[in-house]
Amino acid sequence: MTTVNYDRAVSYYDESRGLRAGVSQRFREAVLALTGASERTRFLELAIGTGVIGAAFIAAGDRYIGVDISRGMMRRIAPKLKRRAEPRLAQADITIALPFADASFDIVQAIRVFHMLADWRACIDEARRVLRPGGHLLIVERHAPPDDAEPPPWALVQTQWDAILQGLGVDSAGARNALYPSEATLLGYLRAISADTRALDLLTYVELPVSCRTMVERRAGRMFRNDWALPEPIHRQATRLLYDWLERECQDADAPAERRMVFRAIAARF
């Protein structure tokens, strides 16, 4: 099994990865405009999680199916819909075999998924199999826009955490980045398998405000998957050093700050 299972993150996932009200609806509108989707369009979301994005499609009445390896994550979707719709969901590892027939969907989207996959090529191949000819595959990640001159203060917590772990003999940044295929790598693979492919900025949005202390507390609580495998003595020592740094270096540690972000999509048609 090559897909990261987020069962352990169910209780805090929306708190730490959620979006402002209205962002998921704007995401849906951007996808409809990009693909020309209609009420007959059949959607599949790979690794739907708690429905941070997908719930907006389901609530709007789209023909939308979500698949995830974590049943616990998917159980969080129905309460968000407030009985406006019934989610159609399936459990599967998206890098092995999707439980759908060939050419079952018009649009397959993977939103912030590929950093969790060791075998992302297998995921693309399965997505291609279940897409109808001419269907859209959307691979969506997020990044800060290039004109962002200065990151918010809380972004320094990640940098400091990596430095602390490196000092303790753990290359967390290398381990984290090893799974990320670059945009150029993804485009190259898609074009090699005869996809008509382009990359574009899909949507600019503002994240929920976060303080430095909140980000430190999330590290202390192992709320990011790269910390899950840290040995307890290493995590305990790193957490102590991070709190020391917070009190010593962070002014206004409790002041929340926002960050502007971009959902960037690779759109492929086979």
Main features:
270 residues; globular; 37% helix; Helicase, Ruva Protein, domain 3; seven-stranded mixed sheet; 2 domains; 11 helices; Rossmann fold; alpha/beta; 21% strand
Structural summary, described in words:
The protein has 11 helices and 7 strands. It has helices at residues 13-17, 23-35, 54-59, 71-74, 77-81, 120-130, 155-167, 172-178, 183-192, 212-220, 232-249, and strands at residues 42-46, 63-68, 88-91, 105-111, 131-143, 196-206, 260-269. Helix 6 links the parallel strand 4 and strand 5. It is globular and about 55 Å long. The mean pLDDT is 93.
CATH superfamily of the largest domain: Vaccinia Virus protein VP39
Distance between the ends: 27 Å
Q: Can you tell me the CATH architecture of the largest domain?
A: 3-Layer(aba) Sandwich
The number of distinct helices, counting runs of at least 4 residues, comes to: 11
Secondary structure elements and pairings:
Blueprint: H1 13-17, H2 23-35, E1 42-46, H3 54-59, E2 63-68, H4 71-74, H5 77-81, E3 88-91, E4 105-111, H6 120-130, E5 131-143, H7 155-167, H8 172-178, H9 183-192, E6 196-206, H10 212-220, H11 232-249, E7 260-269
Parallel strand pairs: 1-2, 1-4, 2-3, 4-5
Antiparallel strand pairs: 5-7, 6-7
Helix pairs in contact: 7-10, 7-11, 10-11
